[in-house]
Amino acid sequence: MPSRNGDYTAEIYGVPYGGAAGGVTIWVDVKKTNAPEDATVKTIYRAEHHGNNHLEWDSENTLRIENWNEYTDETITLNIDDEMYDGWGWACKSLRMKDQSVRCPAPEK
Question: Could you tell me the end-to-end alpha-carbon distance of the chain, in angstroms, rounded to an integer?
């Protein structure tokens, strides 16, 4: 899904895990659209799939990610430049992320 000014593209997709008794993890990746020299894909969201998913650009660099059902809601609005969401909380605690200036906000309630 392209951003309002077309500078970025956001993609939501599911990755199954755990075989027959498993589930699906939802990932949201963002990349610059018109910059082949900077084709870095950045994952900004990862959480358990809850059934209802939707992406919507609130501004040029703010993406609203909906992921909810009647029991759980992990909907969140993220600044794609410096925020990410991990439903398990592992990403922002990892050593890999230690030196990066990334905020990890909680989901909206």
Answer: 25
